[in-house]
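step=encode ok
step=design start
structure_in=
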C-alpha cells in the first residue's frame, strides 16, 4: 500500500507552499501545465519526485470553504480522486483549516456502497486514513449512517419486521441500550388503533420497538421514528412511479436507532428512549378504507380520508404512548409529507415545534453544519383543516400547507410535552449519485439530532 499525503492550500503564491517542493520553477510549471490555480475545490495530484519528503501528495484548495457541509463534500470528492490503494496522512501546517474533521468525515462517508444484490460487486480502491487524523467519533458516526443507509436501501421483500429487528439488535449489541419488542397482540391490547389500522392490509404483523439508553438520567428525551417498511398508499393507491422508492418510507425509524446508538457511544449525559412502530401499508380485503374511523392510543378518533396519509397515524400512537411518561422533550423523525420538500427542496429538513425556541435551538445547533434545517410554523388557524364532521380529526388537511397540517395532527398526541418534529421526506433519500450521498438512503437526521442532543447534555 502506497503512502499519500494531502496538503491543504488556499494560495499557490504562498512562499511557504514552495518549501514543500524540490524545485520552485519545476512545481510552478507543473501547476501551470495542469491549470491548477488554487481556486475553490481545485485538486491536483503531485508525484513524489517533486516533493522533498518523497511522498505522492494531493493538493486540495480550501479557498472559500467556510462551513462544515462544504468541507464534508470536499472530502467526499477528494476520496473519488484517489484511484489506488493507499494510506493517507494530512499536512495541515500550511493553512488553518478549521473544518478538517468534517473533511475527514466526508472521506469516510464517500466509501459507502450498496452492492449486496449485485452478482459482480463494485470494485473500489481501499484507502486507510492515518490514526492521527481520524477520531473514533467520526468512525462511529460513519457506521451509524451506514446502518441507516443499508436499512433504507434494502428491498422490502427482505426487509421484513423481523429483519429490521435483527439489524437493530446487531447495532446495539455492544451498547448499554435496552430493547423491548411489542407484537400485534400487545398493540391491540394497548389501544394502538393507528398502528393496527395501517398494518391490517398486510400479511406481515406490526411491531413496536422500544429502546432506552441512560434510564437514570435527569433529562430525558424520547424519539419516535416512522417505520413504514413499504407504502403502497393503501386504497388511496400511489402511482407506479410513486411506489418505486417506497421501501425508503422507514427512514425515520432507522434514523432514530442511529441516533440512540450515537448517544450511547458518545455517552451523552441525557436519557434517550426510542419508539419505532413497524408496519406495511398494503392493499387487501382487510385494509382500511377511506372513510374508516380509527381510535388512537389516547382515545382520540381519526377519520381516514386518505389511506396514503398513514405515517401520521402510526406516529400519533407512538407519540401518545411516549408522552405518557412525560419526558423532558419529545421528538419525532419521519419521511412524512411530499409537501415538506415542495416547500424546502430536497436538501433541507423541515422542523416544527410547539415551542419555537426549541425549533430555533435545533436549527442553530446545525447552522453552517453538514445537514441543513429550517423551521416552519405550526399555524394554528390551519387546525380547522383537519377537523372531521364525524370524528375528532381527519388525517388530511388537503393539498396546501400539507407539511403544516400533518404536523398539527401530530401535535394533538404529544399531551403538551415540549416537542420537536422533523419532516425529512426530501433529504432522507438522494436522487443523484453524488460522492457524499449516493442514490438511495442518505442517513440524514443522525448528525442533526446528535448535534442538537449534545447541546442538552
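sequence_out=
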Amino acid at each position: 500500500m502506497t503512502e499519500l499525503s494531502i496538503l491543504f492550500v488556499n494560495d499557490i503564491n504562498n512562499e511557504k507552499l514552495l518549501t514543500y517542493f524540490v524545485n520552485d520553477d519545476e512545481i510552478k510549471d507543473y501547476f501551470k501545465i495542469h491549470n491548477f490555480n488554487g481556486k475553490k475545490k481545485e485538486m491536483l495530484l503531485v508525484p513524489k519526485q517533486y516533493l522533498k519528503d518523497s511522498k505522492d501528495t494531493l493538493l486540495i484548495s480550501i479557498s472559500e470553504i467556510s462551513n462544515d457541509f462544504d468541507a464534508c463534500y470536499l472530502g467526499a470528492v477528494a476520496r473519488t480522486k484517489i484511484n489506488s490503494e493507499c494510506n493517507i496522512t494530512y499536512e495541515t501546517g500550511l493553512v488553518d483549516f478549521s473544518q478538517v474533521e468534517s473533511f475527514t468525515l466526508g472521506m469516510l462517508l464517500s466509501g459507502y456502497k450498496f452492492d449486496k444484490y449485485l452478482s459482480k460487486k463494485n470494485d473500489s480502491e481501499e484507502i486507510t486514513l492515518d490514526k492521527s487524523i481520524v477520531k473514533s467519533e467520526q468512525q462511529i458516526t460513519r457506521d451509524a449512517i451506514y446502518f441507516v443507509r443499508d436499512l433504507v436501501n434494502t428491498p422490502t421483500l427482505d426487509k421484513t419486521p423481523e429483519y429490521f429487528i435483527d439489524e437493530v439488535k446487531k447495532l446495539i449489541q455492544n451498547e448499554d441500550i435496552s430493547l423491548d419488542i411489542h407484537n400485534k397482540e400487545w398493540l391491540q391490547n394497548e389501544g394502538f388503533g393507528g398502528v393496527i389500522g395501517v398494518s391490517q392490509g398486510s400479511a406481515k404483523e406490526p411491531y413496536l420497538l422500544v429502546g432506552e439508553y441512560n434510564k437514570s438520567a435527569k433529562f430525558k428525551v424520547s424519539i419516535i421514528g416512522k417505520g413504514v417498511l413499504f407504502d403502497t398508499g393503501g386504497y388511496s393507491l400511489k402511482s407506479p412511479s410513486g411506489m418505486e422508492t417506497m421501501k425508503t418510507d422507514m427512514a425515520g425509524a432507522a434514523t432514530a436507532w442511529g441516533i440512540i446508538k450515537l448517544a450511547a457511544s458518545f455517552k451523552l449525559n441525557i436519557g434517550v428512549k426510542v419508539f419505532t412502530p413497524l408496519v406495511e401499508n398494503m392493499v387487501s380485503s382487510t385494509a382500511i378504507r377511506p372513510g374508516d374511523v380509527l381510535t388512537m392510543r389516547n382515545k382520540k378518533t381519526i377519520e381516514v380520508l386518505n389511506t396514503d396519509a398513514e405515517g401520521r397515524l402510526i406516529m400519533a400512537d407512538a407519540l401518545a404512548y411516549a408522552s405518557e411518561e412525560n419526558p423532558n422533550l419529545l421528538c419525532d423523525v419521519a419521511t412524512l409529507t411530499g409537501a415538506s420538500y415542495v416547500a424546502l427542496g430536497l436538501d433541507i429538513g423541515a422542523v416544527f415545534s410547539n415551542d419555537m425556541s426549541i425549533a430555533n435551538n435545533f436549527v442553530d445547533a446545525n447552522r453552517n453544519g453538514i445537514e441543513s434545517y429550517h423551521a416552519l410554523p405550526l399555524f394554528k388557524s390551519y387546525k380547522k383543516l383537519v377537523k372531521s364532521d364525524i370524528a375528532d380529526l381527519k388525517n388530511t388537511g388537503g393539498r396546501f400547507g400539507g407539511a403544516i397540517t400533518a404536523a398539527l395532527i401530530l401535535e394533538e398526541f404529544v399531551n403538551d410535552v415540549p416537542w420537536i418534529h422533523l419532516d425529512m421526506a426530501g433529504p432522507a433519500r438522494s436522487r443523484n449519485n453524488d460522492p457524499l450521498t449516493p442514490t438511495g438512503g442518505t442517513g440524514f437526521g443522525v448528525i442533526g439530532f446528535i448535534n442538537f442532543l449534545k447541546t442538552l447534555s
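step=design ok
step=annotate ok -> The chain has a mean pLDDT of 96.
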